[in-house]
């Protein structure tokens, strides 16, 4: 359009192009400027030549001389002419226009002037998931689809379709190269970044591509749909020649590949690749530690002339990119948008400037793109940046002189003097009301430009100047003339122009809310009903925003017909329930109780102060608590005890979801945002509703009045604080020296109690627990009890602080504590409870003093408190194990119940073990319910080991001596002769069962005969199982018995007495850690090669197995093997180094297979419980002196010290660490278990990733069972950081599923699928979770969702897995349909055919299987593949088919082979 304004006179045109040179009227300067330089011509001929004819050159020179003379004449003849005349003359001379003058028209850009192919500079204002939103000059917007970023990024998006036909592994390529991962647009671009683009499409108003941007509520996003751009370097840099790529030339390139030393770039210039070194990237982007993705766009500058080589080296230096001037080009198309050039002012007009760039090209800069408050003069040279080209002939460009565009930075201003620089958006946020703005410029049909502050303009579109319809804006008259002042409101921002978008409409200025962030939660607001849907009620607020009322907030009760109540267009009164500024979403409530409520609004944890009464809505009901919701999605928990004073038959019926309740805040934890509330205490009738227990502290001495008396406690009102308190009636009875029944009778309501001490505060319950101050202590004249002054036998008084598994803990003074063991409570266990209640004040006698623990042992036995009173002692005091002997009848308290028996406390330091077989005379299958902790039991002593403090006890009746006749290993000596029977015959020797014992020994084949040349194989065949033999004990070391039956061993024996080798009677003092009586568990420890053959026969003994088959004999030898009775015992060659094996609960044993032992090393194991541990240790003491730590592996860990000792040897064993945690959990030491887990993670070697993972999983299980939701989430996040994140996500989901936390498991699966949507395994496990829960439709809906997230090459695998799930857990017919679709579209996926066949075979439908085989074998395949299918078919026919089918398969195979050979 601008070209039509130019003169048709050729010479005139020539003069225009040449006039910048008129100040130096030389003939040499004129000819080069004559050409108009269209893209088809050679712009700069080599050697200074010209494309004009000689006549044209001569004419141009004459005209140049003439114009120079005229200029000189006018200056000399009219020196006193007006300033205006001089300016006009000078302007005509400089710009090449005649005095009549045709100047270049200055036009602003609009949607009509944008044409396809136009190159333009833009600024990114928003990054959407699938597109970029770009701000263009003159208040325009456009968008760039993700497919128009670069060719390489588009290829990544399309995926590798060729891999669809290939089977793939289950593992996802999570650790692959970043170049093959599709990056997010936010990883490539930043808001405020300038980009060079080419227009690819322009749509009419209201029409645009919704598929890329979506139906957004944002006005800018909606506006950007009209123009579509591309950033692809091939399009943007089209026309750039190789000769243009000189140092300093700026260009946009995309990463094409990643090489060893840098990136290969696509410059968009034919046959010229770019190269960017890693060193340059690190130098100019030191904070960017990750490598650039394939397809990323980079703004680079040429650092080395491309003409010198085939590759153009570039740099990322931002200083070079933003400051380098373009001085010469080979073609007009080489001038790209965003290029910095030097321009000459050729004309100054009210609407802008006419410029000349690069000496030949015309350009314009409209007023909006001039530097504010700056005066321009003709002939001045300026730096300007190219915005776009007009696509005219001759070429013409739009330029910008704005400082922020020239420097390629967002515009920054100071709103007030002395304030810091900030962006225009931050200085004037959307919604800001401006009291007065001044109109500075009027565009008749477009709008107004106003001044907001010096140097900052705003634009008001004609549609926003008034609420009335305005068709035109006269600049010198009317209400909106230049100079008029108006109030305005900021409605947007044009980032590229650095101009605010304003509105002068009174209705917009008066709007209460302009954006969602201004809406306050809890505010009552009136709106208009927009529409009612099944999902909610949509309400129009303030004319600009919509709010939604969810169905559970329609009313205080559930509405069956909400359409009758809510009519579109009707007015409605609501309260703001929740505001989400990021999603521009407002949730409302129409519940009358909430709308009309005058109670405080709680929208954040800081508002939830203890004692505040507010309204809340029930949103979840469980058996033990209610969950209620305040405003802004803030939630609180109401324990069951705080719901109601009386017991409710059904919590869900009394408090349905959506019910509004009044609650009182009891406590708030700001760190975890956990709020505990009470409905019961919020009732207006409660007399304690206004009490804050913060006025009472633990240890305060208070007084109170009895308000009520319950079964076990008295309810008090403390004075003067009015705090509710509980006093134990037992404590009160003990204080008064009467029984509890007497206290219940004597205590009256209104009675005043003094000298009470606060011992516990419970903010959640809103009460405290008090106890009577103890009476004056009987301390033998001493007023103060301390560790230095206390003595054995001293009578002291203390308070019970808590109960432990070892008794009751007492507190005396500030630094002295004591413990009362259950066996020290009384002289008759039937007359008293085992231990006193917590907070009970008790008088006791000191019986032991432990200075290291600063603790004393106490006793409340009458015989200790009053030894001179001669009380009746029914249950004697057992100090240590030496006080017991075999056969003693004693009573004690059940200390713990294990799967293998009981532990009974019979003394302060003495515990006895009772195995299952010793509990009852008859067989009792379910025995554990018959016992409970601290139950009084009576039994007899079986054995005592005073050295190890180990006692074994029995509850059975009968003669104890009968159970003690079996021999033990300690009863055999080397050289001793024994009798026995052949138990088993092996190639390497005989196993002989020794008479009168449960032990077996090995007679190696070399010990059969004295003749070395004899054939021992024949000799072995001469023996039969059950044959009686005589043998000589050769060796008993290492817990094994080696035997020999050579005739020479018995040559001196003429008479063999069958009782000759019978051992002496077993001593009564034996340990419970000896051998079990179950012969089934005995096995010989052989060398690594022989043990596999021996262990399967370990269950061939005659006696029935006992319930306890893990308490095998412990022998203090490092080489002892502890075989299992199970036939699944692994081979010794596969066993690790000595470690603890846990079987059937917490029963520990250790062993080691020594692969270097000779084949003649024999093994034995003793299961008799009557072995004398003391004798055994004495006899073997000399044998183990070479390794004093050998027995540590065989000792059962029973304390923290035992575990610590074992872990010193195996610090990397997660098995040991987890058992250590389990040991602490049995003691209710949850915090210690957590500490052990943290120690394990710090101790285990970093290479043992699986061991560390095992500990993390154990810690997750611990937090799931014993922790809170917050602690579980924290542990989960920590585990995900230190391990494979996907594995941890899936394991947590499985843990929640196994613990029946279905809702949380589902949420975890959703979170996992969102984070790892590219993993087929995640989607498959999610689907299996739904199917196991019976939610088939939910599982099936996952399949299409997963295919949207997964790569195409994973689709077949995922579909087949879902089909398999249908077979196993869902509808088999549906699974068959899915497989049919797979094999139909991918007939040569043999793995899919094979899985299909297996699934159908699992349905026992042989005919269907045959049909599938017929179909697959009809497809052309290799003979090897056909062989595998025929083999599979034949196996299925034999398994679930018939003989006729098998014959058919064979015939079919022969026919196929012949056919293949013939072809």
From TrEMBL:
Biased composition (Acidic residues): 163-175, 1055-1067, 1098-1111, 1154-1171
Annotated keywords: Nucleus, Phosphoprotein, Repeat, Ribosome biogenesis, rRNA processing
Cross-referenced InterPro entries: HAT, HAT_Syf1_CNRKL1_C, NA-bd_OB-fold, Rrp5, Rrp5_OB_4th, Rrp5_S1, Rrp5_S1_rpt_hs1_sc1, S1_domain
A GO biological process held by the record: rRNA processing
S1 motif domain: residues covered: 117-225, 248-319, 338-402, 431-505, 522-591, 611-680, 699-773, 793-861, 887-956, 975-1046
A Pfam family annotated for this UniProt entry: S1_RRP5
Biased composition (Basic and acidic residues): 1-26, 1182-1195
Region (Disordered): 1-48, 77-101, 155-181, 1055-1079, 1091-1117, 1148-1195
Primary localization: nucleus
GO CC term, one of those recorded: small-subunit processome
SUPFAM superfamilies assigned to the protein according to its UniProt record, in alphabetical order: Nucleic acid-binding proteins, TPR-like
Subunit relationships: Associated with the spliceosome.
Protein function: Involved in the biogenesis of rRNA. Required for the formation of 18S and 5.8S rRNA.
Protein name: rRNA biogenesis protein RRP5
Organism of derivation: Pleurotus ostreatus (Oyster mushroom)
